[in-house]
């Protein structure tokens, strides 16, 4: 016998299934909206973070040119490169008199940029002074020499021989490092590889991330 009750129940089941599907669809739409908002928020934060860094780098470039300081400034990172012949004699980690004169001109201007305003000061977490050598000579000797040169520059900056208004603030940000021939052109004694670099590590970058970023940029610029 045909049961009329069955006809009444089937539409009710269809309605329940439709209701469940609509709920899942609404949930997915809500999640997608949340992810979209988070993505936009991250993009805005990254843009806000990049803007002061570009201003800082641009200010470094302007100040070096404006004060006729003979250095090479990377327009993307703000790295300041000083050829070692300005600072040291060959195979020596003792600053030359001419090197000290150069640092007396360069450091006050460079430090003034870092502490130009509270935003710059906050954004620049660290200044790394790196010594570099060419591939000429023994690897271990080059590594040691590069570190000793970076330390010599750092010690001179904070010695009694050099005075500038932001000296003690700068001390809290500086770190010396030796890179030796690790970033030199392979098997080529290129004088341009012998240098001291002042590098910014910006706020929010842990050291490993900062190091990888700089390694990548150096490879691109070669």
From TrEMBL:
Name the record gives this protein: Flagellar motor protein MotB
Domain OmpA-like: start-end pairs: 75-222
Domain of life of the native organism: Bacteria
Membrane-traversing stretches: 20-44
Keywords recorded for this protein, A-Z: Cell projection, Cilium, Flagellum, Membrane, Transmembrane, Transmembrane helix
